[in-house]
Amino acid sequence: MTDVPFQEPTSEVSGLEAGRPGSSPGGAAGGGRRFVRTAFVRRKERFEAWARGVFLAMAAAMIVPLVAIVGHLTYEAWPSLELEFILDVPRRGMTEGGIWPAFVGTLYLVGLSLAVAAPIGVLAAVYLNEYARDNWFNRVIQLAVINLAGVPSIVHALFGLGAFVYAARFGYSILSASLTLAIMTLPVIIASTREALAAVPRAFREACWNVGATRWQTIRSIVLPNSISGILTGVILQVSRAAGETAPIMFTGAVFYKAIARGDLFAYRLDEQCMALSMHLYTVTTQVPNVRESVPYATAVVLLASVLLVNATAIGLRLWLRNRKRW
Amino acid sequence: MNPTAPHAITTKGLNLWYGTFQALVDVNVALPHGLITGMIGPSGCGKTTLLRCFNRVNERYGGVTTTGEIRVLGRNIYDPDVSLIELRKAVGMVFQRPNPLPISVYENVVFGLRIHHPRRELSRARLDEAVERALTEVGLWADLKDRLHVRATSLQLEQQQKLCIARLLPLKPEVILLDEPCSALDVEGTRAIEELMCELRGRYTLIIVTHNMAQARRISDECVFMLLGQIIEHRRTEELFLHPADPRTADYVEGRYG
Ligand SMILES: Nc1ncnc2c1ncn2[C@@H]1O[C@H](COP(=O)(O)OP(=O)(O)OP(=O)(O)O)[C@@H](O)[C@H]1O
Ligand SMILES: [Mg+2]
User: Is it true that domain A83-323 has CATH number 1.10.3720.10?
Assistant: First the structure.
């Protein structure tokens, strides 16, 4: 096709434009036909509109799975959805009743694993970001962190079994399972914490160094207060990961069934096995015949809702801390 | 003033490498006590690097190797018993972009005190006095005395830069290093900072890096011209500008490159 890159000055020059100081007669500054769309420009605009549309569609498509998942689950779970479902224990060989033991078990596992992983991860990240020089030792650490993040969870499970259940003699227990989950979440906590620390401008650190602050004083007085919201968010987002994993706890401390009292929050000891939501979901879906149909779905809804609730808390906390930072 | 140290800072055979790149080459310089020394030179010639040597803060940037000797107030700062914390307390730095800490004006000024003194030594009265004195010295007290608890990063740039100078003062520094302190400021701000520097002259040794030849001429007593990590010329300012000894200096101050 033939594009017309340049329009000859035409005779439709209005009196006003012709009278402009810049418009010299005979020059390119001909007036009325300047800055119009050429065919080539129109083609570019068409592509632009297309590109925008495709990208937007892909981004918008992200809503579909979420709505579909939540909608479908809630619909199927509806007959079982009531507070009693959470508070009650499973009944009639887990075909009916509630999920309290699994719910509490997941609380224990997630709480304990984060209580272990968060301090270790945050402190390690502070070291890597604030102290570590670029030498082989620190490169080895970084490499370890990156690779740890890439280990599949089933391998973590096997490691947890060998290390905590057998070698450390914690047995099949909440402790073993939590430690396995902790190791699994550690690299991500380290990565997100480092990101939060790196977002604190270098200029603040320089200001501190040049009045003679030690690294620790710099970290405590400036770096941490300005990155705490990012650090907390990163840690809390790991709740969903720890709560959702099945393999690592199945190998190390979660059981199909454990009888505890309805609504008892302190039902487990750390050296005991426990039930967990993710595991329970697997059990009632695949291992137990004749389960009331809405039970697996309701379990999933509880798991999902708890995780979303925690994430929402994280976001709220982040906003609150950020606002407070600006006093 | 220490009579054995007529110069605030002297260097002997100072070389510095970032990794394998040599940023300073055999720098020998003696900077006068209590005066303003200007440092000029084209971009990337090592002015900032040299400045950062004087309180050894370069070492915080990683991959830095230094050889040679630097004496600050007669003391070799590479002596093994020199405390970097005490050194940086005496040799403070002001940056190109004002970098007040994201805390209140008050806390910015007392930040150094809090860092260098245990909490129980810092009575409220002592802190208040330090704040008033430092802010008065940089000419901010009148403007800010009712706004001591606003966030320092919300001030105007010029006030922020003055605050950054004020932040050094409670530590009773002897040398203040200023790395292009006016390049983020407008004309008014620049004049205010220059006036402040002239106020501080005599009480502190001031070393100012600047890209602005006219500024170097206006405020400095002595001037150092650097090129590619070397000191080309160091003389009294008017001599350097009127009768430069080295043709490269002449070309630079006349704006033939830069
Ligand atoms: N942290 C660093 N790592 C590696 N190279 C660096 C580092 N800092 C500076 N350099 C290099 O050292 C040389 C001198 O840099 P320096 O910042 O001291 O120059 P300058 O004179 O202050 O320049 P400008 O006028 O642009 O501020 C430059 O070539 C720069 O690229
Ligand atoms: Mg510089």
Answer: yes
The model scores a pTM over 0.90: no
B chain contacts of residue A327, beta-carbon cutoff 8 Å: 151
The answer to whether A327 faces chain B, any CB pair under 8 Å, is yes
Whether A209 and B89 lie within 8 Å, measured CB to CB: no
Establish whether this prediction's ipTM goes over 0.85.
Answer: yes
DSSP string, B190-226: HHHHHHHHHHHBTTBEEEEE-S-HHHHHHH-SEEEEE
Cβ–Cβ gap A204/B102 under 8 Å: yes
Domain residue ranges of chain B, discontinuous segments joined by +:
7-253
Backbone angles phi, psi at B65, to 5 degrees: -120, 135
**Inter-chain CB proximity A203 and B97 less than 8 Å:** yes
Distance B208 CA to ligand 1 centre (A): 16
**Residues 112 to 141 of A: which have CB under 8 A from any B CB?**
133-134
pLDDT in tens, chain B (258 residues): 444 457 889 999 999 999 899 999 999 999 999 899 999 999 999 999 999 999 898 888 878 999 999 999 888 999 999 899 999 999 999 999 999 999 999 999 999 999 999 988 889 999 999 999 999 988 889 888 898 999 998 898 889 999 999 999 999 999 999 999 988 888 888 888 898 889 888 889 999 999 888 899 999 999 999 999 999 999 999 988 888 888 898 888 888 776
Report whether CATH 3.40.50.300 matches the domain B7-253: yes
